[in-house]
Amino acid sequence: MTTSLVFSLDRTIVIAARRATVFRFFTDSERFARWWGAGSTIVPEVGGAVAIVYPDGSRASGTVKELVRDERIAFTYGYEKPGMPIAPGASLVTITLEDAREGTRLTLRHDVADAATRDLHVQGWRHQLAVFARVASADEHAGAARAIEQWFAAWNERDDAARAALLETSASGDVRFADAHGLTTGVDDLSGHIAGALAFMPGLSLAQRGALRMVHDVALVEWAFVDASGVERMRGTNVVRFAPDGRIADVTGVPA
User: What are the domain boundaries of the chain?
Assistant: First the structure.
């Protein structure tokens, strides 16, 4: 690799997933390919080959130079097609991971030989890291649909212990809930609010309408209160934010 890499592109993002989850995308070729393109591979060891296949079929390659589990990876990077701005082995990408409240802070540094090449890659990395954040958070939150099912089940559970168990499984201990009639913090407070809602709205149950729609750590879930005959009495949307461990952290109910 050339020693004249005097220009660098730096970018920092926060991914809604834990560090171990994020790092798996550098040690597993199947996951590596999710954020680069089908056919991309990585050999997760110093000296291991990096092969990137973009969706348009163009290719880049490199070699792993440093690998510290759950903390850092560095690899050379260059395009295989002649005449491209970076030849194979002619730049260095270093990615560092740190814990953040929202998940994992990823810092990227791409060392290149000149300012023009650096500037040419700004938008590419902006896009590629956004894709990475999306697929890594999707991996972390693969159980989101199940958590939402348990959330709705808790809202229809009259037994206090059973309701608390559903909430403790699906939601963070300090889960926040807000809608037009409730504002709670924590599982115990929320469970008490649900008990009150069940008492003051006899004969009504809360039903999920359709599948959740999710990107990164935020999901939209449609809901309706229905009576015993199935008639909808109220409907709306829950805006749900998930914690880095995959449990529900915050729900805001917006009536239709």
Answer: 7-140, 144-255
Produce one character per residue of 24-34: b if its CB has 16 or more CB atoms within 10 Å, e if not: bbbbeeebbbb
Q: Are 212 and 135 in contact (CB under 8 A)?
A: no
Strand 171-179 relative to strand 248-255: parallel, antiparallel, unpaired? parallel
Domain 7-140, what fold?
Answer: Alpha-D-Glucose-1,6-Bisphosphate; Chain A, domain 4 (3.30.530)
Which two tokens mark 162?
């059973």
Helix (H) or strand (E) holding 221: strand 218-226
Whether 42 and 53 have beta carbons less than 8 Å apart is answered as no
Give the list of residues 6+ apart from residue 80 with CB closer than 8 angstroms, or none: 58, 59, 60, 61, 88
Q: What is the pTM of this model?
A: 0.89
b/e string for 92-104 if b means 16 or more Cβ within 10 A?
bbbbebeebebbb
Tokens linked to 77: 């990077």
| Model pLDDT for residues 224-248, shown as the tens digit of each residue | 999 998 899 999 999 999 999 999 9
Q: Chain-wide mean pLDDT for the chain?
A: 95
pLDDT tens, residue by residue, 73-118: 999 999 998 888 899 989 999 999 999 999 999 999 999 999 999 9
Fold classified for 144-255: Nuclear Transport Factor 2; Chain: A, (3.10.450)
User: What is the phi-psi region of residue 2: left when phi exceeds 0, alpha when psi lies from -120 to 50, beta otherwise?
Assistant: beta
Report phi then psi at 73, rounded to 5: -140, 140
Name the 3-class secondary structure at 28.
coil
